[in-house]
């Protein structure tokens, strides 16, 4: 979902794995030749953006050794799952309340689906994100691995997801991907260089 930490956590994972990092929103901007997703929505349409997003995900899906931060809405098109399933997909499951707090802090100008004039950015973001979460239903749950911030906070013995650092979240992502790989032997042979323990230690040294 928007603001869940895909770019922040994705860059950490790419660094420790020695992979390249790509942000699919940025690749769509480059492909269309416009400086922002917001402008693509405004000048063209959301449908035009979604078509280009699928093309970018298709192109990325034939590459290896990369971490991709997808757009938050990539989950809604079934064709995108064909592409995302060429690799391992990770759902950063962040409570809507925490997303709205983060987004209210940085503003909504770069997120066209949330960008409405409002005196109370937190409540506006919370309302719209709740609607999107409802509409998207179980779409995020198609991901191979789920990283639940509530579960990490509970494991750490507090219930406060706002205390979790990107490092905590990246380590949990490595753990959950490792679990998925171990449960799927055919995938195991394709991702031979995933060493959860040593990669997690390296996250802590960044
Ligand atoms: N663990 C965290 N705790 C608090 N703030 C965070 C955390 N991770 C990321 N952030 C902040 O939340 C905002 C969104 O993070 P980020 O840009 O990584 O998310 P994203 O999923 O890539 O969002 P986008 O929808 O813009 O692509 C940023 O301002 C970032 O600094
Ligand atoms: O959740 C969404 O639908 C979106 C998320 C962003 O990453 C962008 O892809 C765009 O703003 C739409
Ligand atoms: Mg991002």
Automatic annotation (TrEMBL):
Gene3D superfamilies linked: P-loop containing nucleotide triphosphate hydrolases (3.40.50.300)
GO CC, one annotated term: chloroplast
UniProt record similarity statement: Belongs to the shikimate kinase family.
HAMAP family hit by this protein: Shikimate_kinase
Descriptive protein name: shikimate kinase
Gene Ontology molecular functions: ATP binding; shikimate kinase activity
Organism this protein belongs to: Panicum virgatum
An example Gene Ontology biological process: aromatic amino acid family biosynthetic process
Superkingdom of the source species: Eukaryota
Main location: plastid
